Amino acid sequence: MPLLSELLKGTGEHDLTRLDEYRAIGGYEALAKARAMTSDQLIEEMSKANLRGRGGAGFPIGRKASLIARDSPKPKYVVVNADESEPGAFKDRQVMDQVPHRLIEGSLIAAHAIESKDVFIYIRGEYLAEYETLQAAVDEAEAAGLFDDVSVVVHRGAGAYICGEETALLDSLEGRRGQPRPRPPFPPVQGLYNAPTQVNNVCTIATLPIVISMGAEKFAETGAATAPGTAIFSVSGNVERPGNYELVLGTPMRELIYEHAGGIAGGRKLKAVLPGGSSVPALTPDQIDVPLDYDALAELKTFFGAASLIVVDDRCCMVQLALRSTQFYMHESCGKCTPCREGTRWMVQILEKIERGDGELSDLELLESINGRILGKVLCALGEFAVYPVSSYIAHWRDEFVAHIRQGRCPYEGRSSIEGIIAPSEQHHHAAVVENPLAVISA
Amino acid sequence: MSPAAPRDLATKVEAIAHRYPDRRSLTLPALRFAQEEHGWLPPEALREVAEVLDLTPAYCEAVASFYDMFHLAPVGRHMVEICTNLSCALVGAQRVVEAFESTLGVKAGETTEDGEITFRAVECLGGCGYAPVVTVDNRYRQHVSPEDAAAIVEELRATA
User: Fold this and answer.
1) Would you state the pLDDT for residue B155?
2) Within chain B, which residues score under 70 in pLDDT?
3) Which CATH entry fits the domain spanning A19-220: 3.30.160.390, 3.20.20.80, 3.40.50.11540, 3.40.50.880?
4) Average model confidence (pLDDT) for chain A?
5) How far is A374 from chain B (nearest CA, A)?
6) What pLDDT, on the 0 to 100 scale, is given for residue B2?
7) Do B129 and A236 touch (CB under 8 A)?
8) Which percentage of chain B shows pLDDT scores above 70?
9) Can you name the residues that pair with A310 across neighbouring β-strands?
10) CB–CB of B128 and A443 under 8 A?
11) How far apart are CA A264 and CA A273, in angstroms?
């Protein structure tokens, strides 16, 4: 299947960070069309389109909008999740950088659907250039009178993976530590400032103008049967041409890796694909004919996730990969739920022990038992994201784990592609210097 | 008692206060303003933010300590950060880490003796398709090779 440009349409030929150029290709016409509809009609249109969330869970946006308590006396909020932090994901960044108006137009359509006057776009703090581009586009669109009485606020995060989790994001936006909330209540009932809130990923929201201009029925016919439309797939790791590729959902993974991304770099051998970012179970080379859609990937017991493929060639030690992945989730665990906070630390220690050559066979069982103590026992998916990949590495590459244990050393003998990689959690940290703590307390 | 917050912090915060229905939402923006002013978040910066937002310094510190971009200890005038997550690691980030360490004469996580440059490894920066990724004072450098380290450091030293 060819590359299909919808979300990124026009970015090759035009500077779509500029309002006049975006309007010249029909920009903001979908907003006018949407505003001519009633809220109910618009939600019906979104439901008929069967547009599913591009952030990870794949939840249909129409159903999410229909759950908003529109008769609530409280304000209703639209929150765009632009806290793109999943290792391997860099697609939202390109949308904000190259076609910010499509995201803004989608946000205004979403606001009209749930009768909201307040849009917040929560962008990860590290995306400074993207923030500047997006804020400039917001200012330009507002000055052009496109907002009516809606306010669009771009809010910067400050470096925390967990804030991509929707309820942690809401807490962070409220000025707190970004820690997930117990559910129910879900955000459509009680979200930002305890009011009904629609939270969606950048690419989901930016697809709304496409749905409206195409018409729901026509949109629903594109892409995969249960997942219409296009998605931007981020491809990274050991491929010849890493980058973002917009394709219809249902495109075979093999085509994305071998045709669009040019195959494995240096003509090496494929070892593993992490199909939805680092948080999902890995696939083996014999599984990559899978179509890229939510349900087909679920059949292989993995996830579409953030539509972000990390491609790993055969030079990589899977124990090291498991360790580096787990160090990340340990570092990013918010600490609220004990199984995740403590479990990820235990996982790191056991994986370090195996990689050092001090492991025992019973450590593999111990790892699996920790997994079972995290899964389903935490408020959000982060703990699961730590567990899923490691479980899959042990399942698919058990021989490699066993070889470390039996040989008492890493069988790669220092030649693994990620040998010695330092994790932020391992580096030297300056302790906060407080010369006289009492002086601070009494000050 | 808390000292009065500097007027410019209050001015910056009040200029965006209308964006939020609840002033607590100004915590991250205010901490960012204070850090821009002080270079990091010393206790007096936390007291200033607390004063402006009518929160406690302890609350501000609790929030700041949660986020990697806020610094509760002094850092260099320039910040060089390298992603060492999977996609960058797979294409040689560790060799870039080592090149910076030897050029700067510090280990990852440390600041040069003259207080000019902090070098640290960070988690995924969302530049995976352009790996290895380094940010210099929050601006992205893509496809960075070990050979680039010396030039980046020289560039920063030149602006000292």
Assistant:
1) 95
2) 1-5, 160
3) 3.40.50.11540
4) 95
5) 22
6) 44
7) yes
8) 96
9) A236, A274
10) no
11) 11
- The answer to whether B79 and B68 have CB atoms below 8 angstroms apart is no
Question: What is d(CA B146, CA B144) in angstroms, rounded to the nearest whole number?
Answer: 7
Task: Give tens-digit pLDDT for A413-443.
Answer: 999 999 999 999 999 654 444 454 455 454 4
> What distance in Å separates the CA atoms of residue A414 and residue A417, rounded to the nearest whole number?
9
Do A422 and B121 count as a contact with CB atoms less than 8 A apart?
yes
> Residue A57's pLDDT band (boundaries 50, 70, 90)?
confident
* Chain A residue with Cα closest to B58: A441
Q: Which CATH number fits domain A230-313: 3.10.20.600, 3.40.50.300, 3.40.525.10, 3.30.450.40?
A: 3.10.20.600
Residue to test with chain A: of B123, B125, B141, B143, most A Cβ within 10 A:
B123
- Quote the CA–CA distance of A324 and A417 in Å, as a whole number: 12
Is B82's Cβ below 8 Å from some Cβ in A?
no
Q: In whole angstroms, what separates CA A211 from the centre of its chain?
A: 21
On whether residue B1 sits in a domain, the answer given is: no
CATH, domain A319-426, list 1.20.1440.230, 1.10.3470.10, 3.40.1000.70, 2.130.10.10: 1.20.1440.230
Q: Do B124 and A85 touch (CB under 8 A)?
A: yes
What's the gap in Å between the CA of A403 and the closest CA on chain B? Answer: 22
- Residue A217 CB neighbour total at 10 angstroms: 10
pLDDT digits (tens, 9 = 90+) for A259-316: 999 999 999 999 999 999 999 999 999 999 999 999 999 999 999 999 999 999 999 9
Which of B91, B123, B130 lies at the smallest CB-CB distance from A331?
B123
Q: How far is A114 from chain B (nearest CA, A)?
A: 19
Tell me if chain A has a CB within 8 Å of the CB of B34.
no
Q: Does residue B120 sit in helix, strand or coil?
A: strand
User: What is the ipTM, given to two decimal places?
Assistant: 0.96
Q: Exposed/middle/buried for A346, CB within 10 Å: 0-12, 13-18, 19+? A: middle
Cα–Cα dist B88/A37, whole Å: 46
Of B22, B29, B89, the CB nearest to A324: B89
Residue type, A398: R
The pair of structure tokens assigned to B121 is 């490894």
Query: Could you tell me where the DSSP H helices lie in A125-196?
Result: 128-143, 166-173
Of A126, A172, A183, A169, residue with least CA distance to B62: A172
Contact residues, chain B, for A430 at CB < 8 Å: 73-74, 109-111
Residues of B within 8 A of A89 (CB-CB) are 126, 128
Chain B nearest-CA distance from A154, in A, is: 9
CATH number at residue B41: 1.10.10.1590
Instruction: Tell me how far apart the alpha carbons of residues A230 and A437 are, in angstroms, rounded to a whole number.
Output: 56
DSSP symbols for A122-140: EE-TT-HHHHHHHHHHHHH
